[in-house]
Design goal:
The complex is a heterotrimer of chains A (about 350), B (about 260) and C (about 300). Chain A has about 350 residues and is mostly helical. The longest helix of chain A has about 40 residues. Chain B has a six-stranded mixed β-sheet, with helices on both faces. Chain B is globular. The termini of chain B are far apart. Chain C has about 300 residues and is an all-alpha fold. In chain C, helix 2 packs across helix 12, helix 5 packs antiparallel against helix 6 and helix 8 packs antiparallel against helix 10. The chains are: A mainly alpha (about 350), B alpha/beta (about 260), C mainly alpha (about 300). The interface between A and C is large, with 61 and 50 residues.
C-alpha cells in the first residue's frame, strides 16, 4: 500500500510540473508583443527593446520557463493588474469561501445522488427509473449560470425564502462578530458557538450550494445506477442467490458495496468540475471566493490573475485526484494489488 | 436424497427452452447432463434452484426433492433449500465470489444465513476447506488472489460446509487447465464416496463425463434424447444426435 | 452459466433496417432526444423562415420596443435595444451547435490518429503521447479552455480554438484504448503473422471497431461542448454582440434580470433544452450500441 501511495505522489508531482509548463505556454500564446504593450503605444523601438529586457522576454524560452517555475515554487505567482496585490495571497484569501461552497455542494450531490441512483437501479425500467434517469440527465445538462439566476429570482426575489447574496448578513457582524479560526464561516460559527451567525451563513449557503450541486447529483446518480446494474448482472450475484440469500440482502451487501467505487472515482472529477463552475455562479451570489475573483479577472483581462487562478485550481484538482486514488485503493483491494 | 424432474418445462414467453419428460438423480449418484451450448442445460439448473424467474423464464412441471415438490414452495422456503440442501457451482470460478470481500467473509456469511453461529461457522469453514485439500487460511484472501482451481474448490467446500445433499455443477471445469480439472474431478469423486453427495454434472465435454459419471443424459434443444448408464450410452449410443456428438470428439490416431 | 453469445463492445454494429427501427422505438431516451435534436436542426436550417423578425438576429435596434414583456407580437419579449428575443433564440440554434460540431470534428481529426498511433504502435510513441495527454487531462475541462480563451482576442473563433485545444486529449485516450485492445486480439496477431501491412490493419480492423465508441462519445460530448461554449460566452470570452449566442444573451440580460426576467429565461432555456436533448440522444445511443458501458462518464 505504501509503495502505491509513494508512486502516486511522485506521479502527481510530475503532473503538476506539466501543468505549470502548460500554464506558462498559455501565458505566452498571447498574440501581440507584451513588451510593446508594456512600453505603451508611442514607445520607440529602443524603449520596446528596453522593456523586453526588463521583462526578461529577451532570454531564451527555457530560461523564462525556469524562472517561472522557480517563482511558482517560492510563492511568487505574479501581481494582479486589478488588485495590485500578489496573486497568490489573493487566491489564498478567496479559497476558503469557494471550498466551503464546493464541499457543501458535493455533500448535497452525494446525499441526493446515491440514494436516487440506488432506487433507480433497484427497479430498472420502471417509471421511477425513467424519471430519475431523466432528472439526472437534466442535472448534467443544466447551464449553471442560468440556474443560478433563475433560483435567485424565484427563491430570493419572488418567494423571499433565501437571501440573494453574500456569505452572511453583514449587519450581524456588529451584534455577533465572527472570529476567523479556520476561514470557513460555517465552521467558525460552530466552533465559536455563534448561533445567529451560523443560521445566517447556512441560509446564505443554500442557494449557491444547490446550484453547484446539480451536476454532481446528476452524475453520481447515473454512475451509481450503472454500477449497480452492472454488478447485479455479474456471476457472483447468481452464486449468492444460489446460496439462498434474499434479494434485499444481495442488493444491500453485494451490489451496494460496489456502488461506492464509481462514486469515489467520480468525486475528484466533480470536485474539479464544481470548482470551475463556481466561476460562473459566485459573482451572481456575491460569494467572495475564487469564482468571483476569476470572473472579475476575466472581465478586466487581468492575465496574471487569470493564470494564477487556473494554476491554483488545476493543482487543487491534481491533489484531489491523488487523494481519491489513494482512498479508492484503500477500499477496493484489486486496485492496489495490480 | 433424490431429485426427480418430471414434465419439466422452462420457457421464455412462448419459447420453450427446456422440455424434460423425466430425469432422476439418485442418492450418491453422479449424473452427467451432456449437450452443446444452448441446449438448455443451464436453464435446467436455474429451474431446479427456483431462480428461473430472475432471468425472466417461467417453469412448469414438477421438481421433487425427496418427494417434496419444489415448484410450489414459497420464496423463503426455497431460500432455505438453496445452498443448504441443493448447492450449485458454476462455470467461472473467478467470478463466483464477490471481488470486494474476502472469500471467507462470503463463506461464513452463507453459513450463518443457514443457521450456524459465528464460532461454528468458522470451524465448519475450516474443516470444509481441509476436506477439499486447501489450507483454511486461504479464506482470508480476496478472489483475485486465488487461482481458478482453488476458487472452484472453495465453492465445493462451501457446498460441503452447508451439508448440501445435491450438488449442481454447471460446467465447473470448463474454465480450468486440464491438470487442475483432473484434481477437481478427483475431489468430486472422493466426496461422493465419503459423504454420499449426489452430483448433477453438466458439461459439453463428453470425455470428462465419461470419466466421472455413473449415468448420463444427452440434451438437445431442451429435450433429453437419450439417457442411461454412462458406459452404455457413450460406447453404444442409440440416438443419432448422441452419435454425432461422439463423432465430433477428436480421437488420437484418426485422420478426420 | 447462461449460454448466450456476449457481444464485445467494440464489435456491436448498428442494427440494420427494421431491427433498427424497433430498437429505436424501444428506447425512449433515444427517441425523445433524437426527435428534439432533429427539431433543433430543422429550426437552424429554416431560421430565416421561422423567425418572425430575422433582422433582429443582427444589428437591428427598435427604440420603441425596448424591454417589452412576452406578448402576442413578441412571444419571448424584446431585449434592451428592442430586438425580438424569439428570433434571436431561433438564430442561436446556428451558433452553439455549429461550434460543437466544429470543435468535435477538430478533436476527432487530432485525437483519432494520435490515439491509433499510441494504441497500435505502442512503445515510446505511446508513452510520449500519453504523458502529454495526461497533462492536458489534469485540468478540469472548462478551466484550460477558459485560460486560453482569455488570452486570445474574444471572438467565436478563439472560443472554438480554445475548446478544441482542450477537448482532443479525451479522444486520444478513448481511441488509444480501443486501438490497444483491438491490437491485442488474436485475429490481429494472425494478420501480422500473415504479413498484412500495419496501415491495412488500421484501416480494416482498428478504425471500424473504434467507430461505434467514437460515435457514442461524440454524441455524449455535444451537450458538454454546448454548455462549455455558452459558459465562456457568458463570461464574455466568446461571442460578441450582435451574434445571437445564447450564453451572451443571458449575460447581457443579467443587469435587467429583475424585473425583465424574459431576457435571461428564454435563451437559458434554449441552452438547457439543447444540451438535454443531445445528452438524451447520447445516452440512448450508448444503451443501444454498448450495453456494457465502457465509456467515459
Amino acid at each position: 500500500m505504501l509503495v502505491f501511495v509513494a508512486r502516486r505522489i511522485v506521479l502527481a508531482f510530475v503532473v503538476i510540473v506539466g501543468v505549470i509548463i502548460v500554464t506558462f505556454v498559455v501565458a505566452h500564446v498571447v498574440p501581440g508583443d507584451p513588451a510593446a504593450t508594456w512600453a505603451g503605444p508611442h514607445a520607440s523601438a529602443a524603449q520596446i527593446a528596453a522593456a523586453r529586457r526588463f521583462l526578461g522576454l529577451d532570454r531564451p524560452l527555457i530560461a523564462q520557463l525556469g524562472s517561472y517555475l522557480g517563482g511558482i515554487a517560492t510563492g511568487n505567482w505574479g501581481v494582479s493588474i486589478h488588485t495590485h496585490r500578489p496573486v497568490l495571497s489573493d487566491l489564498l484569501t478567496a479559497a476558503p469561501a469557494t471550498l466551503e461552497l464546493v464541499i457543501t455542494a458535493l455533500m448535497i450531490g452525494v446525499v441526493v445522488g446515491v440514494p436516487t441512483g440506488l432506487i433507480s437501479a433497484r427497479r430498472p425500467g420502471r417509471p421511477s427509473d425513467h424519471l430519475i434517469r431523466a432528472g439526472s440527465i437534466l442535472g448534467v445538462s443544466m447551464p449553471i449560470f442560468w440556474m443560478a439566476l433563475i433560483l435567485q429570482l424565484v427563491f430570493s426575489q419572488k418567494l423571499k425564502w433565501f437571501p440573494a447574496a453574500g456569505e452572511y448578513s453583514p449587519g450581524l457582524l456588529f451584534s455577533h462578530p465572527l472570529a476567523k479560526l479556520t476561514g470557513f464561516p460555517v465552521l467558525d460559527s460552530i466552533l465559536t458557538g455563534n448561533l445567529p451567525m451560523l443560521g445566517s451563513t447556512l441560509v446564505h449557503l443554500i442557494l449557491p450550494a444547490l446550484v453547484v450541486a446539480a451536476y454532481p447529483a446528476g452524475l453520481i446518480a447515473r454512475m451509481v445506477r450503472a454500477q449497480v446494474l452492472d454488478t447485479i448482472g455479474e456471476t457472483h450475484i447468481l452464486n449468492a442467490r444460489a446460496l439462498g440469500f434474499r434479494e434485499g440482502q444481495i442488493f444491500a451487501r453485494f451490489a451496494m458495496k460496489q456502488a461506492w467505487t464509481p462514486v469515489v472515482a467520480a468525486i475528484a472529477l466533480v470536485f474539479g468540475y464544481s470548482l470551475v463552475n463556481t466561476f460562473l455562479v459566485e459573482s451572481i451570489f456575491d460569494w467572495p471566493g475564487l469564482g468571483s475573483y476569476a470572473a472579475a479577472s476575466i472581465a478586466t483581462l487581468d492575465t496574471p490573475a487569470i493564470l494564477g487562478v487556473t494554476l491554483f485550481v488545476a493543482v487543487a484538482y491534481v491533489i484531489a485526484n491523488l487523494l481519491v486514488d489513494i482512498i479508492q485503493a484503500a477500499i477496493d483491494p484489486r486496485i492496489r494489488l495490480r | 436424497m433424490n431429485l426427480v424432474l418430471s414434465e419439466l418445462s422452462v420457457s421464455f414467453g412462448s419459447r420453450r427452452v427446456v422440455a424434460i419428460d423425466s430425469l432422476v438423480l439418485g442418492h450418491g449418484e453422479i449424473l452427467g447432463l451432456a449437450g452443446e451450448s444452448g441446449s438448455g442445460k443451464s436453464m435446467t439448473t436455474l429451474a431446479v434452484l427456483g431462480l428461473a424467474a430472475t432471468v425472466g423464464a417461467t417453469v412448469g412441471g414438477s421438481i421433487k426433492l425427496d418427494g417434496q415438490e419444489l415448484t410450489t414452495l414459497s420464496a423463503p422456503e426455497l431460500r432455505a433449500i438453496r445452498g443448504r440442501r441443493i448447492a450449485a457451482i458454476f462455470q467461472s470460478p473467478a467470478t463466483a465470489f464477490s471481488p470486494v470481500y474476502k472469500v471467507g467473509t462470503v463463506f461464513t456469511r452463507a453459513l450463518r444465513l443457514h443457521g450456524a453461529d459465528k464460532p461454528e461457522a468458522s470451524d465448519l469453514a475450516a474443516s470444509a476447506m481441509r476436506q477439499v485439500l486447501l489450507p483454511p487460511d486461504l479464506l482470508r484472501r480476496y478472489p483475485s488472489q486465488l487461482s481458478g482451481g482453488q476458487l472452484q474448490r472453495v465453492a465445493i467446500a462451501l457446498a460441503l460446509a452447508l451439508r448440501a445433499e445435491i450438488l449442481l455443477a454447471d460446467e465447473p471445469t470448463s474454465a480450468l487447465d486440464v491438470t487442475v480439472q483432473a484434481e477437481v474431478l478427483d475431489l468430486l469423486r472422493s466426496l461422493r464416496e465419503s459423504t454420499g453427495l449426489s452430483i448433477l454434472f453438466i458439461s459439453h465435454d463428453l470425455a470428462v463425463i465419461a470419466e466421472l459419471c455413473d449415468r448420463v443424459a444427452v440434451m438437445r434443444n431442451g429435450l433429453i434424447v437419450e439417457q442411461g448408464p454412462a458406459g452404455q450410452v457413450l460406447s453404444a449410443p442409440s440416438d443419432p444426435y448422441t452419435i454425432e456428438l461422439l463423432e465430433s470428439v477428436p480421437k488420437i490416431g484418426s485422420s478426420s | 452459466m447462461i449460454e448466450s453469445p456476449a457481444i464485445a463492445p467494440a464489435d456491436a454494429a448498428l442494427p440494420r433496417g427494421s431491427a433498427m427501427w424497433r430498437a429505436f422505438r424501444a428506447n425512449p431516451l433515444l427517441t425523445v432526444g433524437g426527435g428534439v435534436v432533429l427539431l433543433i436542426m430543422v429550426v437552424a436550417i429554416f431560421a430565416p423562415l421561422l423567425a418572425p423578425f430575422p433582422g433582429d438576429a443582427g444589428n437591428a435596434t427598435h427604440p420603441f420596443s425596448v424591454l417589452h414583456g412576452p406578448s402576442a407580437a413578441h412571444w419571448f419579449g424584446t431585449d434592451q435595444v428592442g430586438r425580438d428575443i424569439l428570433s434571436r433564440v431561433i438564430y442561436g440554434t446556428r451558433v452553439s451547435p455549429v461550434i460543437a460540431v466544429i470543435v468535435l470534428a477538430i478533436a476527432c481529426v487530432i485525437g483519432v490518429p494520435l490515439g491509433v498511433a499510441a494504441g497500435f504502435l505502442g512503445g515510446w510513441l505511446d508513452e510520449a503521447i500519453m504523458r502529454v495527454t495526461d497533462v492536458f487531462l489534469a485540468f478540469p475541462p472548462l478551466l484550460l479552455a477558459l485560460a486560453l480563451a482569455s488570452v486570445l482576442p474574444a471572438s467565436l473563433t478563439s472560443l472554438t480554438i480554445a475548446i478544441a485545444a482542450v477537448w482532443w486529449p479525451w479522444y486520444v485516450r478513448l481511441i488509444r484504448g480501443q486501438a490497444a485492445s483491438v491490437a491485442g486480439r488474436p485475429y490481429v496477431e494472425a494478420c501480422r503473422a500473415l504479413g498484412v501491412s500495419r496501415l491495412r490493419i488500421i484501416w480494416r480492423h482498428i478504425l471500424p471497431n473504434s467507430l461505434t465508441p467514437l460515435l457514442v462519445q461524440v454524441s455524449l460530448d455535444v451537450g458538454g461542448v454546448i454548455l462549455t461554449a455558452s459558459a465562456l460566452s457568458f463570461l464574455g470570452l466568446g461571442a460578441q454582440d450582435p451574434t445571437p449566442d445564447w450564453g451572451l444573451m443571458v449575460a447581457d440580460g443579467q443587469s435587467y434580470f429583475t424585473p425583465d426576467w424574459w431576457l435571461v429565461t428564454f435563451p437559458g432555456l434554449a441552452i438547457l433544452v439543447t444540451a438535454f436533448a443531445f445528452n438524451l440522444l447520447g445516452d440512448g445511443l450508448r444503451d443501444l450500441l454498448d450495453p456494457r458501458r465502457s465509456f467515459l462518464p
